C-alpha cells in the first residue's frame, strides 16, 4: 500500500514555507524514500532493545563551578535584530 | 635565488606533515615558507577546484610569523606546529565566518571556537581557510552546498564526494597538508576515497563535538584528512581526548597512535565483508583494487577470512530514518531569531520562522527535515524511528560478534569511484547508496579509515578498515601496513601540474 503523506501538514510542523514546486517534489519523493526505509520493520523484532547512542554515558557531571561564557554582547552579536540587550522578534502574542 | 624560492614553494605543498616537521625542526624551511607554499597552491588551483569558501591568508601569515619568532627564541616544534590546515565550514571559528554551506548561516560569525580547532591552533597548526561542504553536511557529492559544487582534483568534471568534499579536495590538491571534516554517514571516508587521500573517522566520542554545527548528534563524528596514514595518526592524536564541553566525549586516555604504525599485520585476523564486494552496485574496478589489497595483507601474514554482517543491508534504511529525525530536531534552532538569516514577510514570529527556513535551507536539507518530521510525528514514531533504533542495535550486535573473531573488518569504502557532477543530483535514493558501506560504522560508533589502494579507470579507490570501539591503534596498524604494501600513491594530475619542480638538489 503506497504511503499517503500530508505534505502541507508536515511542512507546517517543520515550520517550512515551501513553494508549490517543492510541495509537488516532496509529495513524489518522500513516499519512495520512506518505503525504502520502512524495510527496518522486516527485522526489528519486539524483543530487540532500541539504541539511541553508540557509546552511552549516563549521568555525566562536572563540578558546579563558575566558568567563562559568552557575554551578552557576544551572544547578541550574531542576531538578525537586537534591542536593549535582547533578541528582537516580530510579535508573538495576538494583539487584543 | 628568487627562482629557487619559487621552486621550493611548489614542492613544499606536496610533502606530508611529518616530512615538513623534519624540515621545520632542522630549520631548513620556516613556517612562513610552508604557509606561503600552501597559499600559492590555493592561488594556483582553487579557482578550478573551489575547495575553499574562505581563505584566511592574513591570519595564516600572522600565525606563521609568530611561530618562526617563537622558534628563534628556542621554542620546540610540536608535530602539528607550522602545518597548514583546512577546516570544513561546520567547525565554528571565532571571528571567522562559518556557514555550514548554507544560506541560512551566510552572515554568521561565531563568537566561539570549536574544541578540535582550539587544540590544533594551540598545537601550532596554521589555518589556511574554511572548506566547502554539502549544506549542513547532508550529501555525498558536495553538490548540496549553497555556494556551488567542489571539483575533484583528479578530474574537474567529477564530484569530490561529500559531505566533506572541500576538505578532501584541498588535501588531495596540496592546498592544505591536512584537514578536518565530519562523518555522519561516511562524509569523511567517502570523499577521502574519491579524492585519493586518507580519511579517518575515530570512535564516537573520541573527539569533542563542541563547536560543531550539528547534523545528527548520535552519528556525528569529527574525522581527519591526510595524505598518509602516519599523518592521520598524528592529527587524530592532536585532537582526541576528553572535553568537558561535550557530554558524549570519552574520558579514556588517548594512546600514542604512532606506536602502532610499524607493527605489521603478521597474525592479524582480517574479516572481509564479502557481501560488500559482491554487491551489484560495487564497480568491478573497485572490487579488483580491494581484492588486490586483501591479497597484499595476506602476503604480509594477515589471516584473512570472510565475515558476515547480516544486518548491514538494513543499516542504510535505519540511517535514513535516524539521521533525518535527529536533523529535524537539531535544525529547529535556525529560526531567524538568534543567528543567521531572517526573512520577515510581516505578521507574527511564526510566519517569520517559516519564511526564513523556507528561504534559508536548500533542497536536500528541506527533504531531510520533512522526512525526519514525518518519522517522528504522532502515529508514525513506532513504525519508523522506533524500528530504526532497533535495527541500530542489530547492526552493533553483528559487529560485536564479528570482533569476537576478527581484529579488523575490511571492504570497499565506496561502491564507486568519483562520478560526474550532476549524475545523481536528481535522484536522492541513488545518492544515498553512496554511503552503503560507510554508514554501519557510524551507526555502531566504531573507528574506520579509508586508505587509497590503487586506481580504477584512472580514479582513486578507497579501502576501508573498521576496528572495534576505541580500536584506533589496530586500524592504523593495518592501514599503515597496507599503505606500505600498495606503494607510493599517485597524485592528482592537477597537483602534479602545479608542482613544477622537485626539491633543490644542492641545498
Walkthrough of the structure:
The complex is a heterodimer of chains A (96) and B (507). With 96 residues, chain A is mainly alpha-helical. Chain A has helices at residues 7-13, 20-37, 72-76, and strands at 82-83, 86-87. Chain A has a two-stranded antiparallel ribbon. The longest helix of chain A is centred in the first third of the chain and has 18 residues, at 20-37. The radius of gyration of chain A is 23 Å and the shape is flat. Chain B is α/β, with parallel strands linked by helices and 507 residues long. Chain B has an eleven-stranded mixed sheet, sandwiched between helices. In chain B, β2 (84-88), α5 and β3 (126-131) form a beta-alpha-beta unit. In chain B, α1 packs across α3 (31-49), α8 (229-239) packs antiparallel against α17 (472-486) and α11 (312-330) packs across α13. The model of chain B has no long low-confidence stretch (mean pLDDT 95). The chains are: A mainly alpha (96), B alpha/beta (507).
Quick summary:
The complex is a heterodimer of chains A (96) and B (507). By secondary structure, chain A is mainly α. Helix content of chain A is 31%, strand content 4%.
> What is the gyration radius of chain B calculated from CA atoms?
22 Å
Helix content of chain B: 40-55%
Q: Going across the biggest sheet of chain B, name each strand in turn.
A: 1-3-2-4-6-5-10-11-9-7-8
Beta content of chain B comes to 5-15%
**Average residue pLDDT of chain A:** 91
Amino acid at each position: 500500500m503506497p504511503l499517503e503523506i500530508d505534505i502541507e501538514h508536515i511542512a507546517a510542523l517543520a515550520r517550512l514555507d515551501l513553494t508549490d514546486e517543492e510541495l509537488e517534489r516532496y509529495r513524489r519523493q518522500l513516499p519512495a524514500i520512506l518505503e525504502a526505509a520502512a524495510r527496518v520493520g522486516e527485522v526489528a523484532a519486539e524483543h530487540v532493545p532500541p539504541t539511541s547512542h553508540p557509546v552511552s554515558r549516563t549521568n555525566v557531571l562536572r563540578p558546579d563551578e563558575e566558568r567563562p561564557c559568552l557575554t551578552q554582547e557576544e551572544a547578541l552579536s550574531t542576531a538578525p535584530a537586537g534591542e536593549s540587550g535582547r533578541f528582537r522578534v516580530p510579535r508573538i502574542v495576538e494583539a487584543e | 635565488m628568487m627562482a629557487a624560492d619559487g621552486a621550493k614553494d611548489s614542492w613544499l605543498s606536496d610533502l606530508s606533515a611529518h616530512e615538513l616537521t623534519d624540515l621545520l625542526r632542522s630549520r631548513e624551511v620556516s613556517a612562513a615558507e610552508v604557509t606561503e607554499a600552501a597559499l600559492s597552491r590555493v592561488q594556483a588551483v582553487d579557482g578550478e577546484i573551489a575547495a575553499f569558501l574562505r581563505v584566511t591568508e592574513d591570519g595564516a601569515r600572522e600565525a606563521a610569523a609568530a611561530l618562526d619568532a617563537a622558534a628563534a627564541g628556542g621554542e620546540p616544534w610540536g608535530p602539528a606546529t607550522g602545518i597548514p590546515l583546512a577546516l570544513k565550514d561546520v567547525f565554528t571559528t571565532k571571528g571567522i565566518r562559518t556557514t555550514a554551506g548554507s544560506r541560512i548561516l551566510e552572515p554568521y560569525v561565531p563568537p566561539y571556537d570549536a574544541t578540535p580547532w582550539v587544540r590544533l591552533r594551540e598545537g601550532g597548526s596554521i589555518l589556511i581557510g574554511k572548506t566547502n561542504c554539502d549544506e549542513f553536511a547532508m550529501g555525498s557529492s558536495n553538490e548540496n552546498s549553497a555556494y556551488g559544487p567542489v571539483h575533484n582534483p583528479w578530474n574537474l568534471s567529477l564530484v569530490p564526494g561529500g559531505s566533506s568534499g572541500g576538505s578532501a579536495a584541498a588535501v588531495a590538491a596540496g592546498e592544505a597538508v591536512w584537514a578536518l571534516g565530519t562523518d555522519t554517514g561516511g562524509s569523511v571516508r567517502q570523499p577521502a576515497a574519491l579524492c585519493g587521500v586518507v580519511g579517518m573517522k575515530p570512535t564516537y566520542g573520541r573527539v569533542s563535538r563542541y563547536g560543531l554545527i550539528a547534523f545528527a548528534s548520535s552519528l556525528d563524528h569529527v574525522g581527519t584528512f591526510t595524505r598518509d596514514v602516519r599523518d592521520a595518526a598524528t592529527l587524530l592524536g592532536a585532537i582526541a581526548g576528553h572535553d568537558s564541553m561535550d557530554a558524549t566525549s570519552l574520558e579514556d586516555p588517548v594512546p600514542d597512535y604512532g606506536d602502532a604504525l610499524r607493527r605489521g599485520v603478521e597474525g592479524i585476523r582480517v574479516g572481509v565483508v564479502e557481501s560488500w564486494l559482491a554487491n551489484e552496485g560495487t564497480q568491478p574496478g573497485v572490487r579488483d583494487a580491494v581484492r588486490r589489497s586483501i591479497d597484499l595483507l595476506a602476503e604480509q601474514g594477515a589471516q584473512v577470512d570472510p565475515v558476515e554482517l547480516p544486518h548491514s543491508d538494513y543499516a542504510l534504511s535505519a540511517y535514513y530514518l535516524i539521521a533525518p529525525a535527529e536533523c529535524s530536531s537539531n535544525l529547529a534552532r535556525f529560526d531567524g531569531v538568534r543567528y543567521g538569516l531572517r526573512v520577515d514577510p510581516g505578521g507574527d514570529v511564526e510566519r517569520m520562522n517559516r519564511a526564513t527556513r523556507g528561504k534559508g535551507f536548500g533542497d536536500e536539507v528541506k527533504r531531510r527535515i520533512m522526512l525526519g518530521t514525518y518519522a517522528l510525528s504522532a502515529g508514525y514514531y513506532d513504525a519508523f524511528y522506533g524500528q530504526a533504533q532497533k535495527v541500530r542495535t542489530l547492526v552493533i550486535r553483528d559487529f560485536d560478534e564479528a570482533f569476537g573473531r576478527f581484529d579488523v573488518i575490511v571492504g570497499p569504502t565506496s561502491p564507486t569511484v568519483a562520478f560526474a557532477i550532476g549524475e545523481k543530483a536528481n535522484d536522492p535514493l541513488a545518492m544515498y547508496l553512496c554511503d552503503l558501506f560507510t554508514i554501519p560504522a557510524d551507526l555502531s560508533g566504531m573507528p574506520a579509515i579509508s586508505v587509497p589502494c590503487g586506481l580504477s579507470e584512472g580514479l582513486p579507490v578507497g579501502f576501508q578498515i573498521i576496528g572495534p570501539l576505541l580500536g584506533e591503534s589496530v586500524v592504523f596498524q593495518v592501514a599503515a601496513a597496507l599503505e606500505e604494501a600498495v606503494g607510493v600513491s599517485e597524485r592528482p594530475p592537477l597537483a602534479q601540474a602545479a608542482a613544477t619542480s622537485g626539491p633543490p638538489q644542492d641545498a
